[in-house]
Amino acid sequence: MNRLTRITAILVKLQSKRVITAKEIAASFDISLRTVYRDIKTLQESGVPIGSEAGIGYFIVDGYNLPPVTITEEEANALVTAERFVHQNAESSIIKNYASVLTKIKSVLKNGQKEKVELLESRIIHHHKNGGSPTSKFLSEIQKTITSFGLLDITYHTIYNDKVTKRNVEPLGLYFNDDSWILIAFCRHREEIRNFRLDRILELKTLPSTSEKAKSFSLQEYFNSQLENYS
């Protein structure tokens, strides 16, 4: 990678995150910290408003916009392939949102790239494990609730006793297991962290309150504690 290409890539990397450290940039491009500092200085001297905080990292000042991003053929192919995996997760809100963003990305492709993308789409097929019907539709809403530390009222169908109950929960995290999305949340009814399959959530309503537990929750620490309990 020549220096001009690398500096452009660093700018895209900066734009993709709120804050990024010099070590992260160095690791991403396999360069030294000294080279990172030199490249950042070059960007700043060229007029890119890059701020920095000691011990935290670099960031793009709000209001700055990158010129249109050029998508390579390989990147476009990766997105088309990823769409098949998105369909496999059987979550209607994510399928819809991914299709929307992919359409926007396709709109900036050159005509030759569009033809190749259409050809590749016709040569890749996906199979649903559940017969083709998305089994849940609340993932996007739950994701927004997690990032805003919000609360949810859910109507939940418990399979083992075939009961439908109302729960007030504090969403903490998500994971995908086999063919189902699982919500990790603090259940105020049970007063403990519980797992809820999204395909068993019948209704969902966001609440205006915020969760203090969600602000300090660590998904990695949670999984580590679960492993310790089973060891």
From TrEMBL:
Q: Which Pfam families match?
A: HTH_11 (PF08279), WYL (PF13280)
Has keyword Transcription? Answer: yes
One Gene Ontology molecular-function label: DNA-binding transcription factor activity
Q: Domain HTH deoR-type spans what residues? A: 3-58
Keyword set, alphabetical order: DNA-binding, Transcription, Transcription regulation
**Which superkingdom heads the taxonomic lineage of this protein's source?**
Bacteria
Query: Gene3D superfamilies under this entry?
Result: Winged helix-like DNA-binding domain superfamily/Winged helix DNA-binding domain
Q: Which InterPro entries does the protein's record reference?
A: CBASS_pafABC_assoc_protein, DeoR_HTH, HTH_11, WH-like_DNA-bd_sf, WH_DNA-bd_sf, WYL_dom
Q: Which PANTHER family match?
A: PROTEIN PAFC, PTHR34580
- Know the name of this protein? DNA-binding transcriptional regulator
Annotated organism of origin: Flagellimonas aquimarina
